[in-house]
TrEMBL record:
Belongs to the peroxidase family. Ascorbate peroxidase subfamily. Its cofactor is Ca(2+); heme b. Heme b binds at H189. Residues 1-21 form the signal peptide. This is Peroxidase. Residues 28-318 form the Plant heme peroxidase family profile domain. GO terms for cellular component: extracellular region. The active site is at H72 (proton acceptor). Ca(2+) 2 binds at T190, D236, T239, D244. Its EC number is 1.11.1.7. The lineage of its organism: Eukaryota, Viridiplantae, Streptophyta, Embryophyta, Tracheophyta.
Length: 318
């Protein structure tokens, strides 16, 4: 059986009290959506994850990328599995945009025609986080798969590695998520890897916002000017195989490789900076809010009822 892999309340400050937008009451999704039609779906997905994690590297270290795959899916056409569509000779798809080239997605044969690929991806993302010692949350289900996977749209909408904090916030707001969600969900970078091309300009231009010791460490694996797109570095240079709050600590120490991570801690948005500080000091709070933001993320642009389809093969439309 194939596994999809390679592929992300109140917060109190001394002078802030922030609440998430309430989107739970009108959600068309439900935790027990497959209780009668495919009650074993979550057990099967978990069993396959365990099998993969029991394998030796490099297969098991690619598993955190599933979370990235889930994030890339929601940003274009919502959470509908459109990022899984394989491009053909005569038709491009989201997977052909440069930021998605390293992602992979295999068919996952669980109750064919009943369980959607987008739900499988959501369940697996939650399992991956919990496997790496992160928080657990009840995954809502009931999504249907989309009928569109557009390369141009993906290139236009996907965040770029050099975007400002203002641009990132606007992008999240455009899909109904907040600055709190942005900073919280960015914490998924505590596991997984990023390719050299995504931070090359920072190390070769001697970006002073990146700690010198980190630059010297990664530059050996990302030789200039010929950068291998297949070479990657851990997003969290301290605990890359553990889902914890060390990512936020490393940002405060200027160890974040991606400029879009660095601006969370040192950009012009005060709320973002305060959230980075608070999460770096309180892992329990980060876990609590990450779980809430993942539920919100899983509701973005979902298709339900008679919309879309339930794919028989996650890599192609029916």
């Amino acid at each position: 059986m194939g596994l999809l892999f390679m592929i992300i309340a109140f917060v109190f400050f001394s002078n802030y009290s922030l609440s998430f937008a309430n989107s739970s009451s009108s959600s068309p999704l439900s935790v027990g959506f497959y209780d009668k039609s495919c009650p074993q779906v979550e057990d099967v997905i978990h069993e396959e994850l365990v099998k993969k994690m029991s394998q030796r590297p490099p297969l098991n270290i690619t598993i955190p990328g599933t979370l990235r795959l889930f994030f890339h899916d929601y940003y274009v056409q919502g959470c509908d599995g459109s990022v899984l569509i394989t491009p053909t000779e005569d038709k491009d798809s989201e997977r052909n945009t440069p930021i998605n080239l390293s992602l992979a997605g295999d068919a996952f044969d669980i109750c064919p025609g009943v369980v959607s690929c987008s739900d499988i991806l959501a369940i697996l993302a939650g399992d991956v986080v919990h496997w790496w010692k992160g928080p657990h949350w009840e995954v809502e289900k009931g999504r249907r798969d989309g009928l569109v996977s557009n390369l141009t749209e993906a290139e236009l909408l996907m965040p770029k590695s050099n975007e400002s904090i203002t641009s990132l916030i606007r992008g999240f707001e455009s899909i109904g998520l907040s600055t709190v969600d942005l900073v919280t969900l960015s914490g998924a970078h505590t596991i997984g890897f990023t390719h050299c091309i995504e931070f090359a300009s920072r190390i070769f231009q001697k970006d002073t916002t990146l700690k010198v010791a980190v630059r010297e460490k990664v530059i050996s694996s990302c030789p200039f000017p010929k950068i291998d797109r297949n070479v990657a570095e851990a997003l969290d240079q301290d605990t890359e195989f553990l889902f914890d709050n060390k990512f936020y600590k490393s940002l405060r120490q200027r160890k974040g490789l991606l400029l879009t991570d660095n601006v969370l801690a040192f950009g012009e948005d005060e709320l973002s900076r305060k959230l980075v500080y608070r999460y770096s000091e309180d892992q329990a709070l980060f876990f609590q809010e990450f779980a809430k933001s993942m539920v919100k993320l899983g509701r973005v642009g979902v298709k339900t009822g008679k919309e879309g389809e339930i794919r028989r093969d996650c890599r192609k439309f029916n």
